[in-house]
Write a structure and sequence with these properties.
The protein is an all-alpha fold. It is built from eleven helices and no strands. Among the domains are: 50 residues; 112 residues, no CATH class. Helix 6 packs antiparallel against helix 7 and helix 8 packs across helix 9.
């Protein structure tokens, strides 16, 4: 599925050819201006709740528009929320699952995937052996958990249900060059952000660290001398950096454009440095 022309992959990104992007920029600009003035006027009138509801409806409409055209857009937003930004919109709800963007986006992606199957935009295609094995295995583990150890339901969601949906999306939905290109660009951008945050935290460049929650030792897992990034967890942060680094290695091996190979090599060097800081204690590094 990933065996396409990587020279064309980079040329398509920088090619100057007619696209609907200018129209999209104009629409988003008008939407931004109208939203700003609506917020200013309605809040002055004391209608803040109406502003929140209207804003939510507008965002949902925009998300639906892009999701119907390209589901990778919603998938990228979900992965972004899982890369440490879920806490920015986290609302604690005692007795119920916390309100967070990652959960809402995951539910949205599932609904859109089902909608695509029903409308025929995504079609089941063989071979079905792997599909049947994975679905039966996931269902079998779920039955075992419900009968024997129901307290491990969350672990089942993480270790079984999530890989199942990842497999289904990869086979039936995210399989076009455009969708794969969007996801690769996202991973490259997140890699740069991650190693910049890792190096900045190690060198105490607090001015460029964002979100500032990274500097709060009372939130998340704090280990002296180890960068923890926006996920607020040094080991997990290192695992994400390591996985994103492999994507850079894959792109480096596949493409033949000299300047792109140089940029990827430099980026990989910084990624290794950022990864080193996530697992390394500060005192003996200073020596």
């Amino acid at each position: 599925m990933l065996n396409w022309n990587f020279d064309r992959f980079y040329k398509d990104i920088i090619a100057q050819r007619p696209t609907p992007l200018p129209q999209l920029v104009v629409v988003l600009f008008i939407l931004l201006i109208s939203s700003f003035f609506s917020y200013f006027i309605l809040t002055r009138l004391g209608l803040f709740t109406l502003v929140l509801v209207s804003g939510g409806i507008i965002l949902l409409a925009v998300l639906a528009y892009f999701s119907l055209k390209d589901l990778s857009f919603a998938l990228v937003l979900w992965m972004l929320s899982m890369c440490g930004f879920r806490t920015l919109g986290l609302v604690s709800m005692p007795g119920l699952p916390d309100f967070s963007f990652d959960r809402l986006l995951l539910m949205w992606i599932i609904l859109m995937f089902i909608f695509q199957i029903i409308t025929g935009r995504a079609r089941f295609k063989g071979p079905y052996v792997a599909d049947v094995i994975i679905v039966l295995h996931t269902a079998y583990i779920l039955v075992q958990i419900q009968v024997i150890e129901s307290e491990h339901f969350h672990n089942w969601v993480i270790s079984n249900l999530s890989p199942l949906f990842a497999y289904l999306y990869g086979k039936y939905t995210i399989n076009r060059d455009k969708e794969l290109r969007n996801i690769f660009i996202f991973f490259l951008c997140m890699t740069i952000y991650f190693y910049v945050m890792s190096i900045a935290q190690q060198l105490n460049w607090e001015e460029i660290i964002w979100p500032k929650t990274i500097l709060d030792r009372n939130v998340g897992l704090w280990h002296r001398g180890r960068s923890r990034g926006p996920v607020l967890h040094p080991p997990y942060f290192g695992q994400l950096l390591g996985m994103f680094l492999l994507i850079q290695l894959y792109l480096l091996v596949k493409n033949k454009i000299t300047w792109v190979r140089i940029l990827l090599s430099v980026s990989m060097a910084f990624s290794f440095l950022g990864l080193f800081f996530t697992y390394t204690r500060g005192p003996w590094v200073a020596t």
